[in-house]
């Protein structure tokens, strides 16, 4: 009996040593990755300059080649998150060799989910817009007139996936991604739900280079993957004890993965060295960094003030964390910056001009004409305030990524059913009120 107890103690000690080995020390200093629209003009100027220098010097070709070569190892399996975390950090480290003040921003494409092509992010102000008719070459914004050498020479191209190639089909809403984060209880679930939703949808929405394995040729790739990394990091932060080092599922060969696995292309980096943002070499944070232990503050903040209008059974089903009751504190100034600046028609008609987080709740519904604002069974339906469903991933994309159509179909159905139920519940997303 005593021996048994001693051996339990010994194995506990062994466990804590292992845990320590897995936990790199906290960073002494770190930088903040901001949403692209939250950058100061000076930060944007630095970023813009560095990207153009890196492009000139062949780094875009270099990273595209790495990504393309490893394609089969790093997608549609557990390596997806850790590899891309290390990969974009590698890219950002190269940026810092040009200018130590430079950092990689992220693109929160969820807030643009209804009509991403109308986002300022995809305009001459930031990352440029669609490729021009015919050549599909991008002629404005940061990558204006960029040419690539890899995998073949030509201009950097975009060809939006909407009707006629002129618009981008709906992406995944902040609400849908928040829902996915709240219902994913294992690493594998989260990876599957995120890789096969917003990740693929943005790649396909922009298409041309972005729909290939040399997508790193397009600067959107880097900001998009920073956003994917942020989602993973927020999910980890929502329950650090359980999720900081949660790693399960299989690799490209169907074998179980371990925290001690080495990352492809980075022979000196093990998975456990990239699991914790803010530790070891992962010396960055996101501008929405939730307080440690709280759930995905930013993602909830974006949605929660509208979510309170939902019936309890819908909240319980899709937003268990909101039901748990910590959402009152999820108000975040950076979110307000991302809200639409134009006053939506539907609101003007009712004389409501304010779009701050506290207004867009029950008072708004009242102002809109009450209990049946839109989408309800008896209402005078106004399709403008209905949430569109996300577009499904394409067969070609699933093939290229070796994703099972069944798995991807399930993820898409979850989000579609979710969108239907929110619409049926008269829910108004802040992010559909803009047209
Ligand atoms: Cu990738």
Task: Describe this protein with a few key phrases.
two-stranded parallel ribbon; metal-binding; mainly alpha; di-copper center containing domain from catechol oxidase; metal ion binding; Tyrosinase_Cu-bd; Di-copper_centre_dom_sf; binds copper (II) ion; 16 helices; signal
Count of β-strands: 6
Helix content range of the residues, please?
40-55%
CATH overall fold name of the largest domain: di-copper center containing domain from catechol oxidase
Average pLDDT figure: 81
How are the strands ordered across the major sheet?
1-6
Bound molecules: copper (II) ion
The termini sit apart by: 71 Å
Signal peptide: 1-19
InterPro entries: Di-copper_centre_dom_sf (IPR008922), Tyrosinase/Hemocyanin (IPR050316), Tyrosinase_Cu-bd (IPR002227)
Keywords: Copper, Metal-binding, Signal
Protein name: Tyrosinase copper-binding domain-containing protein
What does this structure look like?
The protein has 435 residues and is mainly alpha-helical. It folds into 2 domains: 27-286, Di-copper center containing domain from catechol oxidase (di-copper center containing domain from catechol oxidase); 299-432, no CATH class. The strands form 3 sheets. It has a two-stranded parallel sheet with strand order 1-6. A two-stranded antiparallel sheet has the order 2-3. Strands 4-5 form a two-stranded antiparallel sheet. The chain is built from 16 helices and 6 strands. It has helices at 2-22, 41-56, 59-74, 80-98, 174-183, 187-206, 219-237, 240-243, 297-307, 312-318, 320-323, 333-338, 345-348, 362-367, 395-401, 405-424; strands at residues 31-33, 147-148, 154-155, 262-263, 266-270, 284-286. Helix 4 (80-98) packs across helix 7 and helix 5 (174-183) runs antiparallel to helix 6. The structure holds copper (II) ion. The site of copper (II) ion has 4 residues, from helix 3.
